[in-house]
Each structure stands twice: as C-alpha cells, then as structure tokens.
C-alpha cells in the first residue's frame, strides 16, 4: 500500500469515526457536568425530615380501605391543634406537594400556623402509599388494577373515617389540589350522606366533569398510544418516583431546558420562582400512578359529560362489574356539602372554561365560594412565591365552616 492510499484510507476512517466520537465526547462532558451538579438538601428530604427542618411536628398512620389497600396518612398537628383539615394531593403526586414550596410558606404549614390540625392522605399508587393486604405493588400486577374512581370512593372515605375517629371531631374540612380536588367532588357526589362528615370541601385547580386540558403534558399522559406502548412493554405504573438523582441533577444543571419543559404546568416567570427550585419540585413530587388511571382520564376526556361515569370496561364487562351495560354516573347536583371552587386564570391543565362548567354543575346554595381569577397556573396554586393572596381566602373559608 503506498502512502497516498494509506492517507485516504485513514481519512475515511476518521471521517466515519467523528460521527461516533464527537457525540460520545459531548455526552461525556454533559454527564460529567450533571454528575458534578450540587442539589439542595431539600430536594432529597423525606416528608418527615422536611417537617423537622422547618420545626413542624409530624405523625404517621396507616389506614386500610374497604378494598384492602393500605395507605399512609400523615399529620402535622401544629402547636395548638384545632379542627382537622384533610389535604388530598393530585395525579401521580404525594403529600409532599403541600409542604415542598421553596419560595413561600407552603399550604400545609400556613394552615398549621392557623391552628388547624393538618392531615395529609397519600392515595393508592403514590410511592408513599404502596401497601396492600394481599398484593405486592412491585411484583403483583393486580395491585395496579385501579383508577381514579377507586381513589374517590375508597381512599378518601377511609381517610375521613380515620381522621374523625382519631380526633373525635364530628366534621372535618377537606382541601384538594387537581385530581385530589376532583376526588373530593366525586366522593361527595357518590356518597351525599357524607355531608355529615365534612363541614366544607375546598377544591383547588380542578374541573369536575368537563375536562379539556390544554396542557401538553396532561395530553401526553392521556394519549392512547402511550397507554398502548405501556401495555406492550408491560408497564403498570407511570411517572414513578425513583431515588436516582440523575434527572434531578439534569434539571439543576440545565435550568433553561427545565424551565421550558415545566412551562405548561408551572411557569417560573409567572410565579417568580427560581430555576434551582425546579429540581426539588421534580424529585419530591413524582408519586407514580397506574396506567389504568390514565386510561380512565382518557375516557373522561372523550366522553365529556356533566354527569361523569365510573371506569368504562365496555358493555359486557360493565354488566359483570356494575350490573348494567353503562357504568354508574355521578351527579354533582346531589352534593349537600358546602363547596369552594378555586382556580388560577393561567391554568392550562384546568382552563377557566372547565371551571365554569363545574360552577354550573353544583347546587347554587352549596357553592359557597367561587373564584377562578387567581393570578396562578396549575403548579403555581402550590408553588407560587406569592401564596398569601389566595391562602387568606382558603383559611377564612375553613375557619368559617369549621367553627360552626
Ligand atoms: C427551628 O428551630 C431551631 C431551634 O429553635 C432554630 O435554630 C431554627 O432556625 C429553626 N428552623 C427554621 C427553618 O425555622
Ligand atoms: C415486594 O417485592 C419486592 C421484590 O420481590 C421485595 O423486595 C419487597 O420486599 C416486597 N414487599 C413486601 C412488602 O413484601
Ligand atoms: C371509625 O370508627 C367506626 C365506628 O367505631 C368504625 O366503624 C370505623 O371502622 C372506624 N374507621 C377507621 C378508619 O378506623
Ligand atoms: C401577591 O399577589 C397579590 C395579588 O396579585 C398582590 O396584590 C400582592 O402585591 C402580591 N404580593 C407580593 C409580595 O408580591
Ligand atoms: C359511557 C361512554 O360513553 N363510554 C364511551 C367513552 O369513550 C370511549 C372512547 O374513549 C368509548 O369507547 C366509550 O364507549
């Protein structure tokens, strides 16, 4: 081989290799940067550590539902515990969402400071609530055979009953965010007699029946191809919590990308938040939810109805499960408990027009408060740097109805 040929040969090899070496080098540099990124201690606190750090007392209980799920229920009694208030978190989340705000006093602490006895439920599927009498969530597929109506009709009543028994209070207050607020609504629509247990339900950032979410993330989670893909691969749980910190560090290392991705649920500019908080929110907030639950929400999106239905298995299976070819439906007009509806005007996940439908779906005399103009988006209702404005209203409502 003469030198000329060798040179051409080497040149070709190099031209080819650069397509591998350059991206490989870039990946190395990026992953090094991510590895070297520091994350704040709050990002990895447990719920208990978080309470301790901010000097709030913490208690933990377990509650078994009528369908054998074993859930964790947290309590922040505050210094001078008065009437109990039960907080319910949203989709694929956990009780963490009520304490993790990094730039303002978080909701659970605001209410504890006002001498409410704060209880926080962790609904089934959340990584803080994976117990079951018979199934192991890690290995038994059956554990994940549930959807939203099961949270509303089993988890919430179990929490309410436990809190009432433990505190001896006849009636408690409830506050829910997003899916958690919808669960309160469904529970009360299905069990109107629970007016005897609840003094007031405060529904934050929820749409009730009509569900036309404009958030790309929510649309992604409810897309049929995603559910199909998960079924094919055999995944039962999505958006799960993990103790791996790679993505958290990635968010911390590349805040511009994180801000862009978070934008549709939590717009940093709107909420005057700091990019370095995003990693903490991301790590602490993922709870995990079942694919069946996402399928349920797709059904809800597809069958827009003022009287929403329980999970639709198809006519034949419905007869076996429910005794009729159509799933039972919920009528919010049956609700006899005072309700407050609170929404943000920049919320893409629950647009104002959905909120207005909810307003019309509840008996006028039971809708004791309605405000859909708070200057927040969906995440801002929990993590805005200015929580005083609307939490003053929440506190006043709870005081008014719990002192009766
Ligand atoms: C918690 O209390 C300790 C002791 O009183 C105090 O030093 C600390 O600053 C408090 N922490 C917070 C976050 O307020
Ligand atoms: C569930 O199964 C996993 C994997 O086999 C195991 O590590 C875990 O201890 C089990 N959990 C319980 C509560 O038995
Ligand atoms: C609360 O007390 C009632 C009456 O004693 C009992 O039936 C119910 O199971 C209790 N609920 C819980 C969650 O402990
Ligand atoms: C909080 O928001 C309210 C309502 O938008 C506003 O009036 C108030 O000035 C804000 N407070 C701060 C500290 O930004
Ligand atoms: C009860 C009802 O109308 N169910 C329909 C909801 O939408 C799905 C499509 O996602 C239909 O298959 C159901 O029949």
TrEMBL record:
Task: Using the record's annotation, list all stretches that form the Partial AB-hydrolase lipase domain.
Answer: 48-101
* One Gene Ontology MF term: hydrolase activity, acting on ester bonds
Q: Which residues form a coiled coil?
A: none
**Catalytic residues, chain numbering:** 178 (nucleophile), 347 (charge relay system), 376 (charge relay system)
Per the record, the GO terms for biological process are:
lipid catabolic process
Q: Name one Pfam family in it.
A: Abhydro_lipase
Any transmembrane segments, and where?
9-31
Q: Which SUPFAM superfamilies match?
A: alpha/beta-Hydrolases (SSF53474)
InterPro entries listed in its UniProt record: AB_hydrolase_fold, AB_hydrolase_lipase, Lipase_euk
Q: Which domain of life is it from?
A: Eukaryota
Indicate yes or no for the key word Electron transport.
no
Q: Which residues form the signal peptide?
A: none
Tell me which Gene3D superfamilies the record gives: alpha/beta hydrolase
Q: Which UniProt keywords apply?
A: Glycoprotein, Hydrolase, Lipid degradation, Lipid metabolism, Membrane, Signal, Transmembrane, Transmembrane helix
Protein family: Belongs to the AB hydrolase superfamily. Lipase family.
The protein's name is Lipase
